[in-house]
């Protein structure tokens, strides 16, 4: 990527994570409870976590651990039962639906597992959709750079049905990046991709953190995907149980196996 | 497969609700019409049979063609002969006709066809069982009259007071001596009843001593057939004798004919409504099958055959149709009741009676509902059969391949071109015989446009989006893309609306144009202030014009008489008038000569007639009249064809000898300067307050004509309204289905920052675009059909000139806009209320 030179950072530098980067999002004592009485389920139990700017964080955990719920609550897609969640300096629990929608539009980018794009719009129109919604014009230079970063130039006039699964997800990444959000939440972005396209996509996410200073939080259950992150947060039974910096796929896998064993014996 | 179909039906209850509603409304219309016509028929028959209860044999003088063979009249001798027959209980001799009673304003108190006058026939007890007297007594002397209660009230006369009436001549007065009741349907349907003693009635309606019909009642236990035969035996052949049963059967046939014509008209509109419903049903099943393609593929994978898949879809449609039309049947009862009150409110006075639900109506309504639904689901079911089993295994959700529209567009273009060509051919037709051709052309044009609609949707929606783009922003853009996403669906939804609107527009244009034509007709050539005519077309005594002419305040009262003749085998009408005065009451432009050139032995002819018959000033016009006599006047003047004069104008001396009775068709009255306003009452007064005399201003004449057209137009609006309502249900249906299909998209849009309000706006705009597309097509097709079909009207109505009522068409478009907004209310609300997370996770 030719733009990497413009942002002189070395991949996965430990100093960056510990350095004076401000916090992009933070949860304090965040709890999420579903149902009442007998059917009461605690999805998140007093979780406190910070996501720093220009950092790529993976949230891992077995199914039912609350990792998706955590992401949804922090992204303002779900309400919380207690605690607080901040995006930048905005406290989400004080916002009504309208302001939350605006916050999502202006400050948050999303990449879902599938069905990220409107089939009726071209790739370019999909990428600029959040800007269109906001009634803003996309910064042409930035748009150009993002499109190049994810390798989509030449495919911009195509409709989603004319793109491969990997290309569709890259359009989703480009859409999330173009609006320059405070933070991007990615929910199993490689879940529907073959391993080569998945690796490619994770490379782009990695690149956008390094080259474009983007903050990304990714929920995944794939240790290989998690290994692209700067930091992995492990969740089990609605609690943060561990954290790992500079993860490798093997280390993450070992850690997960340990939880599994523990979960089965306890 | 039956179970699968039933399960599917139950699982998609809410999604099928709108479709069911469309079928329900259509079948309610059908069953309502059937129940209504059966009930009205039964009520009429009931009334008839009551009035025929005591009729064993009815005797009438027979056809007038037998008159010449020295026919005998129905007189007292005939009555006596019949009375002497064994088995005869009584003979009721009656004589009657039209008797017009004057109300307080000297207008007819009853309808033109229902102003009944007849004789009162007291029995041994001094009472006539057919007309029970409720107040006062029966008529017994020449100066006495009995009326029904309603008519008496209209005249404002109490017993002992004076009633004014006219039979066919001058006004008469009689003393009201009683009030009678009757179940004569003509009277209850807005007519009036006047009873006289027999001698008076004979003088008024026939000749003294003669009756117009005899009603023979039989003794209990007498055979009607036999008695009728005996009556025939004792009477001369010229008389006609019919048994009561025969009469009842004949009247019943007449009632059937009448109710069936109402029924067929309504059924035609119900058919249109159901046809509109077909689009909605087809749309729904197409959408359901697309949504269910994986399930169907799974069924195929586990061994279901194509035929079984088709059958499953059709069974589902059949069950839906059955359930919806059963509900429609119930609603139909309400429709039938409503129709009666609506028609009664507009003055139809239909008899009361219980609702009659024939098993045939029930079966027909249910059958129609089921058949329409199944037929509409047939094409989609074939699509379902084409789903390959392998699609069940597909992991990635691939959007269904869009089938090319090339074939469809070609067919559509061919149909439209054919339809338009036929309609253009219709514009060249000279006579009004091309009605069938025009209807075929109109049907083809509409069918072609419906087939072409997917192709047309693109430019129309684009245009609309561009026009509103600045106002609607991103919601508008998304709505446009959604509307264009599935052109077939958008087209089918819009077509449903188009059908109703094109008919409404076409009828409106023709009606407004006709109205304008009628207005022109009166305005152009009549300069008289009043036109005096007789309400029963019996003509006016020549004295009337003379009396009026002497009246102060009247500048001219010009009588016009006419008689038919043939010249070279071509029939025409010659009018006789006062040549010196005709110019005062009408505008006649003479091309050569002038009105005063019309003298004994000369005539004036219209330029058109002169051209057609090769006449010039000085040529002879050979005339043969229908009394066998001939004349050969010279042409002395030629006038430009106008609306007041017929083809030939002559003096009274030419026309009068050929008239049975010298009567004026009309008298045109011109007021002296400054006295036009109060003249109307004065003319009526001069005419003795005769209720038969109609005094109308040109304005009133126009309104009488135009009023009819407007009334019919509003009735059509009402009947076509149902088709529009069903089309609106279709728009709601399409939007609701689309919102359901696009749940994940909407969730994603909400996640990346589309506000609820904007989601609502998006759905609403899509709705408006579909509705406007349908409206634009409908208005366009309607205007085209009205323009081309209008040429047929023109051939028999030269004043007809096409006028496009733009204001009214703008109202139609506004209504379509409102329809779009209204139809979107519920789907838009649903879309905006979707939970973001659940939507994203939805399958």
CATH class of chain A: Alpha Beta
Give the amount of beta strand of chain A, in percent.
15-25%
Distance between the termini of chain B: 25 Å
What is the radius of gyration of chain A computed over CA atoms, rounded to a whole number of angstroms? 18 Å
Residue runs with pLDDT of under 50 for 5 or more positions of chain B: 65-70
| Fraction of residues in helix of chain B | 55-70%
Look at the helices and sheets of chain A and give the structural class: alpha/beta
Category from helices, strands and their pairing of chain B: alpha+beta
Fold and architecture overview:
Chain A has 266 residues and is of the alpha/beta class. Chain A has one domain (54-79, 90-265): Rossmann fold (3-Layer(aba) Sandwich), CATH 3.40.50.300. Helix content of chain A is 37%, strand content 24%. Chain A has 10 helices and 10 strands. Chain A has helices at 14-18, 67-74, 97-107, 123-127, 129-134, 140-149, 165-178, 195-212, 223-226, 249-265; strands at 23-34, 41-52, 56-60, 82-87, 90-91, 108-111, 183-187, 216-219, 231-236, 239-245. Chain A has a 6-stranded mixed β-sheet with strand order 6-7-8-3-9-10, with helices on both faces. In chain A, α6 (140-149) packs antiparallel against α7 (165-178). By secondary structure, chain B is of the alpha+beta class. Among the domains of chain B are: 457-525 and 698-843, no CATH class; 530-696, no CATH class. Chain B is 57% helix and 14% strand. Chain B has 24 helices and 23 strands. In chain B, the strands form 3 sheets. In chain B, strands 13, 14, 15, 16, 17, 18, 19, 20, 21, 22 and 23 form an 11-stranded mixed β-sheet that branches. In chain B, strands 3, 4, 5, 6, 7, 8, 9 and 10 form an 8-stranded mixed β-sheet that branches. A 4-stranded antiparallel β-sheet of chain B has the order 2-11-1-12. In chain B, a hairpin with a 4-residue loop joins β18 and β19 (630-631). In chain B, α2 runs antiparallel to α11, α12 runs antiparallel to α13 (435-485) and α14 crosses α22. Mean pLDDT of chain B is 86; it is low at 65-70. Chain A binds chain B through residues 72, 75, 77-78, 97-98, 101-102, 104-106, 109-110, 112, 114-116, 118-121, 129-130, 132-135, 161, 165, 175, 192, and chain B through 396-399, 473-474, 477-478, 481-482, 484-485, 744-745, 748-756, 758, 836-837, 840.
């Amino acid at each position: 990527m030719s733009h990497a030179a413009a942002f002189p950072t070395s991949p996965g530098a430990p100093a960056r994570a510990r350095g004076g980067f401000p916090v992009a999002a933070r949860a304090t004592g965040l709890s999420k409870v579903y149902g009442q009485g007998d059917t009461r389920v605690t999805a998140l139990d007093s979780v406190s976590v910070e996501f720093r700017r220009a950092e790529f964080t993976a949230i891992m955990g077995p199914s039912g651990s609350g990792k998706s719920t955590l992401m949804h609550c922090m992204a303002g897609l779900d309400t919380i039962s207690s605690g607080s969640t901040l995006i930048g300096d905005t406290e989400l629990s004080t916002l009504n639906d309208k302001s939350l929608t605006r916050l999502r539009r202006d400050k948050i980018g999303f990449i879902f597992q599938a069905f990220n794009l409107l089939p009726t719009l071209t790739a370019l129109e999909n990428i600029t959709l959040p800007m269109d919604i906001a009634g803003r014009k996309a910064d042409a230079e930035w748009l150009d750079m993002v499109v190049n970063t994810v390798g989509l130039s030449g495919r911009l006039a195509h409709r989603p049905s004319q793109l491969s699964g990997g290309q569709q997800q890259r359009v989703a990444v480009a859409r999330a990046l173009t609006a320059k959000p405070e933070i991007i939440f990615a929910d199993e972005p490689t879940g529907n991709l073959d391993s080569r396209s998945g690796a490619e996509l994770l490379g782009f996410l990695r690149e956008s953190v390094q080259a474009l200073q983007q903050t990304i939080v990714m929920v995944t259950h794939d240790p290989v995907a998690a290994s692209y992150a700067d930091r992995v947060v492990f969740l089990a039974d609605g609690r943060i149980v561990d954290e790992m910096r500079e993860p490798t796929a093997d280390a993450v896998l070992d850690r997960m196996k340990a939880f599994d064993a523990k979960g089965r014996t306890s | 497969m039956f179970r699968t179909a039933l399960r599917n039906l139950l699982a998609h209850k809410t999604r099928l609700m709108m479709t069911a509603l469309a079928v329900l409304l259509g079948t309610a219309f059908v069953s309502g019409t059937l129940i209504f016509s059966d009930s009205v028929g039964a009520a009429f028959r009931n009334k008839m049979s009551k009035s025929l209860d005591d009729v064993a044999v009815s005797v009438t003088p027979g056809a007038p063609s037998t008159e010449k063979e020295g026919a005998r009249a129905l007189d007292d001798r005939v009555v006596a002969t019949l009375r002497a027959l064994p088995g005869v209980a009584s003979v009721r001799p009656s004589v009657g006709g039209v008797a017009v009673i004057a109300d307080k304003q000297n207008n007819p108190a009853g309808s033109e066809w229902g102003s009944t006058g007849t004789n009162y026939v007291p029995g041994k007890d001094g009472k006539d069982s057919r007309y029970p007297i409720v107040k006062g007594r029966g008529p017994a002397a020449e100066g006495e009259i009995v009326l029904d209660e309603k008519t008496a009230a209209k005249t404002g006369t109490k017993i002992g007071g004076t009633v004014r009436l006219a039979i066919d001549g001058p006004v008469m007065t009689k003393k009201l001596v009683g009030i009678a009741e009757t179940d004569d349907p003509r009277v209850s349907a807005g007519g009036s009843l006047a009873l006289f003693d027999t001698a008076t009635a004979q003088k008024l309606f026939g000749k003294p001593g003669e009756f117009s019909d005899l009603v023979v009642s039989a003794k209990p236990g007498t055979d009607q057939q036999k008695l009728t035969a005996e009556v025939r035996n004792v009477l001369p052949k010229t008389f006609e004798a019919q048994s009561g049963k025969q009469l009842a059967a004949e009247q019943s046939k007449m009632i059937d004919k009448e109710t069936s014509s109402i029924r067929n008209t309504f059924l035609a509109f119900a058919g249109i409504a159901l046809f509109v419903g077909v689009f909605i049903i087809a749309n729904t099943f197409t959408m359901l099958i697309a949504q269910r393609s994986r399930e169907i593929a799974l069924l195929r994978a586990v061994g279901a055959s194509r035929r079984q898949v088709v059958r499953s879809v059709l069974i589902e449609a059949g069950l839906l149709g059955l359930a919806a039309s059963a509900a429609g049947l119930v609603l139909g009862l309400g429709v039938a009741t409503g129709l009666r009150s609506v028609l009664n409110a507009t003055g139809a006075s239909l008899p009361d009676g219980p609702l009659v639900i024939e098993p045939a109506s029930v079966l027909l309504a249910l059958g129609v509902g089921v058949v329409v639904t199944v037929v509409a689901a047939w094409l989609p079911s074939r699509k379902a059969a084409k789903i390959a089993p392998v699609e069940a295994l597909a992991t990635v959700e691939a959007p269904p391949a869009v089938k090319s529209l090339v074939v469809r567009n070609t067919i559509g273009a061919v149909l439209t071109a054919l339809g338009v060509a036929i309609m253009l051919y219709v514009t060249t037709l000279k006579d009004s015989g091309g009605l069938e051709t025009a209807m075929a052309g109109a049907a083809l044009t509409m069918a072609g446009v419906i087939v072409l609609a997917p192709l047309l949707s693109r430019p129309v929606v684009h245009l609309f989006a561009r026009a509103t783009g600045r106002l609607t922003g991103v919601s508008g853009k998304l709505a446009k893309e959604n509307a264009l996403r599935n052109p077939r669906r958008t087209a089918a939804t819009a077509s449903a609306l188009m059908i109703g609107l094109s008919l409404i527009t076409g009828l409106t244009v023709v009606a407004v144009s006709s109205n304008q034509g009628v207005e022109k007709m009166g305005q152009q050539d009549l300069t008289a202030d009043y036109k005096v005519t007789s309400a029963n077309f019996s003509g006016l005594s020549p004295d009337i014009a003379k009396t009026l002419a002497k009246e102060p305040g009247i500048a001219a009262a010009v009588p016009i008489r006419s008689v038919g003749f043939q010249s070279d085998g071509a029939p025409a009408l010659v009018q006789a008038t006062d040549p010196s005065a005709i110019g005062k009451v009408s505008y006649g432009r003479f091309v050569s000569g002038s009105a005063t050139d019309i003298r004994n032995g000369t005539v004036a002819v219209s330029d058109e007639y002169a051209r057609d018959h090769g006449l010039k000033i000085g040529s002879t016009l050979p005339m043969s009249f229908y009394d066998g006599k001939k004349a050969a006047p010279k042409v002395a003047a030629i006038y430009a064809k106008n609306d007041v004069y017929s083809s030939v104008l002559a003096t009274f001396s030419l026309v009068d000898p050929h008239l049975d009775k010298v009567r004026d068709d009309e008298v045109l009255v011109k007021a002296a300067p400054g006295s036009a306003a109060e003249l109307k009452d004065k003319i009526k007064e001069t005419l003795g307050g005769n209720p038969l005399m109609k005094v109308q201003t040109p304005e009133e004449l126009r309104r009488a004509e135009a009023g009819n057209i407007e009334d019919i137009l509003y009735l059509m609006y009402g009947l076509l309204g149902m088709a529009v309502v069903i089309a609106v249900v279709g728009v709601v249906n399409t939007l609701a289905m689309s919102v359901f299909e696009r749940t994940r998209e909407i969730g994603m849009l909400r996640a990346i920052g589309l506000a609820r309000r904007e989601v609502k706006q998006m759905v609403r705009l899509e709705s408006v675009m579909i509705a406007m597309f349908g409206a634009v097509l409908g208005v366009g097709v309607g205007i085209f059909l009205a323009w081309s079909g209008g040429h047929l009207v023109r051939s028999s109505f030269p004043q007809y000139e096409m006028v496009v009522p733009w204001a009214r068409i703008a109202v139609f478009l506004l209504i379509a806009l409102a329809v779009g907004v209204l139809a979107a209310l519920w789907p838009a609300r649903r879309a905006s209320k979707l939970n973001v997370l659940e939507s994203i996770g939805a399958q």
